[in-house]
Task: structure prediction
Amino acid sequence: MDKKNVRGFLEFVYDFYKSMKAHEITLVYEGEITHQITKAFTSLTESNMAKEEESNTVQKKVFHVMVECLQNISKHADSFGSDDFLFAGRGIFMVSKGDVEYHVTTGNVIENTKIEELTRILEHINLLDKEGLKQLYKTQMREGRLSEKGGAGLGFIDIARKTGRKLDFHFLSIDEENSFFILTSTISRTE
Amino acid sequence: MNTIKIMGTDDTPTVILDAENEVFEISGRSLPEDVTAFYEPIIRWLDDYATSPNAKTIFTFKLVYFNTASSKLLLDILMKLEQMHEDGKEMLIRWYYPEDDEDMQEAGEEYADIVDVPFEQVSYTLN
Result:
């Protein structure tokens, strides 16, 4: 890098650091989500929470939500750009911790053709109350089949149940074929 | 009959299936990398066992965590036990949950609702 580029890069690093601090991000990752990554992130977050004497209930909820979010990316994220399968199963994963709540945010590329179906599933979950979610989980467990990727459509229901909140999701358009799917799950620290 | 003894890890449960000594237990944490591959031998063992089960089977679940993919396989196991119960064998499920873990207690209640088999909830204190 020439001098000017070095300067630009250093500023980027510092800005990146500052915006992580501003958004209270304690963990951020972009790349392939493997089982090893899932284990490493959950155990890192677990030990941080234990150090900070977070309640057992909160620790368990954060753990549950992290695992399901990470597995969603590893099983469902689509590849982006031509036919490069190397980009499948990748995404961005972030954990942030504020005074009153934890946020687990995932972002991954999804083919536009899948948006309608995914929206239908997520909106259906968001219409249900606690009892409705419980019934849906039971039905899905009984009737749903494990897909070849190992999902049974249970992850999103579990996230809604564990957080006690509506699923907060958005699609940002990338191009004619792909969009970026963002899901933010919030776990209260005071419950 | 063969016995199954799998030692638990931080992402797979301890599994003991020993008909001779009447020990049937799944405990610990369950989030295997490949749930189907992990549970397949267990399901197969139960299919075998169902051909000539003990007069009475007490099956213990003592899990502290399982992911949603595992929840489906746990139901498959419970349905095998339900089938043996329907076939006239005495069957009891003991579902252990840490006393402060409402979610694990509720998970037990949900399974008890789905399968028609004697189901006992037992709370315990984590050390």
Observations:
- The CA atoms of residues 58 and 92 of chain B lie 5 Å apart.
- Chain B has a mean pLDDT of 95.
- The longest strand of chain B covers residues 56-66.
- Strands of chain B lie at 4-6, 14-18, 23-30, 56-66, 90-98, 119-124.
